[in-house]
Amino acid sequence: MHLKSLTLRGFKSFASATHLQLEPGITCVVGPNGSGKSNVVDALAWVMGEQGAKSLRGGKMEDVIFAGTSGRAPLGRAEVVLTIDNSDGALPIDYAEVTISRTMFRNGGSEYAINGSSCRLLDVQELLSDSGIGREMHVIVGQGQLDSVLQASPEDRRGFIEEAAGVLKHRKRKEKALRKLDATEGNLTRLQDLLAEIR
Ligand code: ATP
């Protein structure tokens, strides 16, 4: 599995459609300070479902939409499309190439699609988490974050390993199932009370 391409439209400083073709192996992005190198990494995190404005170095989520410059008006939407080569089947989907897209409008609405079909954020997260790219995004290590990984507590470190191994998804599902069981047990108790009152 490798990232094949990334297309940005109206995302941060990339007002015009910008297509980046990526080859297997190491890719380096070089450019002067403030030219948008980190914005490319932010776009990658964002299209994979990142939900924290802070993780994207903004104050609020809509800060990812091109805010305008002296010569160009602000835009109303941001879109990022990521194409992943899945010829080794690392992603649990029956396609040799997987395209994930995310669009956000200034009114706050967000849309996701996998291979052109609309989907939920959860679908994107679940698709990626099987390949070790989890919702916590530890595959992206930002400037200055390396120290916090090295100094993490044993529990947090276990979390990183669990996420990379794809265990986190099952833990979350288990938590969700336990919450549903709890709610059902509550409903049953209430039902028994009602039945006792009727008798
Ligand atoms: P450095 O080498 O200093 O880390 P960089 O190449 O990583 O810089 P970025 O941080 O990616 O640069 O880009 C910063 C630029 O992106 C700034 O000029 C900022 O004004 C611009 N920018 C960020 N968000 C938006 C937005 N929503 N609309 C327009 N421009 C934006």
From TrEMBL:
Residues the entry annotates as binding ATP: P32, N33, G34, S35, G36, K37, S38, N39
Subcellular location: Cytoplasm
Coiled-coil positions: 174-199
Annotated function: Required for chromosome condensation and partitioning.
Family, similarity comment: Belongs to the SMC family.
Domain commentary: Contains large globular domains required for ATP hydrolysis at each terminus and a third globular domain forming a flexible hinge near the middle of the molecule. These domains are separated by coiled-coil structures.
Quaternary context: Homodimer.
Name of the protein: Chromosome partition protein Smc
Annotated organism of origin: Mumia zhuanghuii
Name of the gene this protein is made from: smc
